[in-house]
Amino acid sequence: MSPIAHASFPPQEGLIEENLLALSQLRHFVGDLAPEHYRQAFGHHGHHTFGKHVRHIIDHYDALLSGLEADGDVIDYERRRRDELLEQWPQQAAQRLAEIEAALAAAIDRCPSVRLGQAYHAGDRALLLETSLARELAFLTSHTIHHMAILGLLAEQVGIALPEAFGVHPSTLRHWQREAAVPASARSA
User: Which residues are in the DinB-like domain (predicted)?
Assistant: First the structure.
């Protein structure tokens, strides 16, 4: 039998902590950017900016928090706010990230097994998928890190230095820690 079948999944607190770590890194990055850098267009069509990626991340957390506050406990990532001010003004985005961090920290007491619904839009109809707060927190960690990795590539193009762990998934960080703990002679054997 698989060891996963007998192991308990990471506690909700750990999932929230992973999200808080990513959001904190993102907030510090955004807080240090000048508005002209935050809005700078990248890519052939100029569709990528730091601000658009940050706003997209914020939208997803806002959708989760709105779903948790609503009576039906349904999360709908497609019906995002898409607040253009958050993609234009880094200080407003940094403030909203701090508010999201506070809301997530307050959610630690919420039961990780609470059942939620996630609206998934397929064509002209929406499916209601069964999910949980723990599952959505795991999704948001991966989603946020994915966009932070893109931000890291954009930052590299304009010479903005970022910490080595920026945009790196917690599982990769744990792998790096395990690798660093193994003597080099044992790795080459």
Answer: 24-150
Separation between Cα atoms, residue 23 and residue 58, nearest integer Å: 9
pTM (whole model) above 0.90 = no
Taking CA atoms, 91 is separated from 51, 64, 87, 97, 154, in Å, by: 11, 22, 10, 10, 19
Q: What is the number of other CB atoms lying within 10 angstroms of the CB of residue 128?
A: 12
Q: Alpha helix (H) ranges present in 39-168?
A: 50-69, 84-88, 90-106, 133-157
Work out the number of other CB atoms within 10 angstroms of the CB of residue 56: 17
Q: Phi/psi of residue 183, each to 5°?
A: -60, 145
- What integer is the mean pLDDT of 156-169? 91
What pLDDT does residue 96 have?
Answer: 97
Total length of the chain? 189
Higher pLDDT, 17 or 23: 23
Pull the structure tokens for residue 55. 């706003």
Query: Which has more pLDDT, 82 or 99?
Result: 99
Q: What is the structure's pLDDT at 14?
A: 83
With beta carbons less than 8 A apart as the criterion, state whether 19 and 120 touch: no
